[in-house]
Amino acid sequence: MIASKNFVLDRRLFVLVSLLVGGLFDAQASHALGTDAGVNIQNTASVNFEINGTAQTPVNSNTVQTLVDELIDVVVVDNNGGPVAVSTPDTGIILQFTVTNNGNGAEVFRVIANPNVVEGGFDPLLDQLYLESNGIPGLQIGADTAYVSGTSDPLLAEDESLVVYVVSNIPVSLSQGDNGDVELRAVSETIITQAGVDNPDDAGWPTPGTSYAGLGNGGGDIVVGTSHDTSNLLMRTTGRYQVSDAVINVTKSSITVLDPFGGTTLVPGTVITYQIDVAVTGTGSADGVVISDLLPAELEYQLNSLSINGVAEDDDFAPLGVDGSGYNTGASTVVVDRGVVAGGSPTIVITFDAAIR
Fold first, then answer.
1. What is d(CA 152, CA 130) in angstroms, rounded to the nearest whole number?
2. Are 242 and 86 in contact (CB under 8 A)?
């Protein structure tokens, strides 16, 4: 089964849409804070000496054992690369974040989305949070985990990252350029339990350096790290929706499957017909619209299969501005250049065939 992907882009940028089948997430590099929690550091001193010029047996001290405590730290990053363009009203619009356990032990984190951020100008209508769980880039509803606080809180090993999707609806009657912010937090469940408060902004939230005896991985203490300081923004970040007079929505799907036996199994030799729908909404125009689909090594483009709005397109590809549509063999990419597309124009429908190698 091939899942659909939806993307929204702002018209004021050069629009280059890349649909990567089986690509990798762009994750921020992170490193756990030092020695693993629960490691028992052992250290012994020794004395070497002589008596009357004769070396004696070294004398060793007692062994000092140091059990490393668990330091709890987390980093939340906005993956959107700037405001996500939306219409007014609009539904099911996605903001993407990455949560990384930057501490030195495994920890369960509660994820909290706050759409009532004053700086934004309007409050997005929060719909649902999802946790990336199936390894396919982009939100796959039904495959990725719908987040339920207290039930599906993620357990992250040290250095482990998790993509979180925030899906919101956009209110009616907004103006061009209006912003709506959503703040995402990741908060340690252990700290919540021990402090007895749910929110880092509540009175009683512990300051960095606060410790809780015997609760760390391996039997050491748990120590609150600097990311959980209410004045430190590491455990929270903000993504933004922005009302645009031209919004691009892109959906990719597989519409037919034909295997070598005349059936629909997905085996080597099976030919899949893909369809990409590109719609521009709003009152403005999107400039420099280029749709590109990079095929992975497992798929082979089928010659002369490209069609745009039901009209066959030759495979010949030249630089943009000459004949920007076709199959770029060197880059293994289907490219369609549509130039300026006015809001409300008919949906651009692109189809092509690719075979499983």
1. 10
2. yes
pLDDT in tens, 37-57: 667 778 888 889 888 899 989
* Closest residue by Cα to residue 296 from 12, 21, 106: 21
Burial 339-353 (b: 16+ CB within 10 A, else e): eebebeeeebebbbb
* Domains of the chain from N-terminus onward: 6-24+245-356 (2.60.40), 71-242 (2.60.40.10)
Neighbour count for residue 228 (Cβ, 10 Å): 24
pLDDT at 33 over 70: no
SS3 141: strand
Helix (H, G, I), strand (E, B) or coil at 272: strand
Q: Measure the CA–CA gap between 146 and 164, rounded to whole angstroms.
A: 10
Closest to 353 in 3D by CA, of 322, 325, 315: 315
First to last CA, the chain: 17
pTM, to two decimals? 0.71
Task: Decide: 85 and 242 in contact? Cβ < 8 Å.
Answer: yes
d(CA 45, CA 192): 41
Taking CB atoms within 8 Å and a gap of at least 24, the contacts of 121-124 are 121/178, 121/179, 121/180, 122/171, 122/174, 122/178, 122/179, 122/180, 123/171, 123/180, 124/93, 124/168, 124/169, 124/170, 124/171, 124/180, 124/181, 124/182, 124/241
Q: What pLDDT is attached to residue 319?
A: 60
37 HSE (CA, 13 A, CB side): 26
Q: What is the pLDDT of residues 240-264, one digit of tens each?
A: 999 998 889 899 999 999 999 999 9
Nearest to 266 by CA among 351, 332, 357: 357
What is the SS3 assignment for 237?
strand
User: H/E element holding 191?
Assistant: helix 189-195
Q: How confident is residue 153, by pLDDT bands cut at 50, 70 and 90? A: very high
Written as six digits, the tokens of 91 are 């539904």
- The predicted structure's pLDDT at residue 233: 64
Which residues are bridge partners to 323 per DSSP?
Answer: none
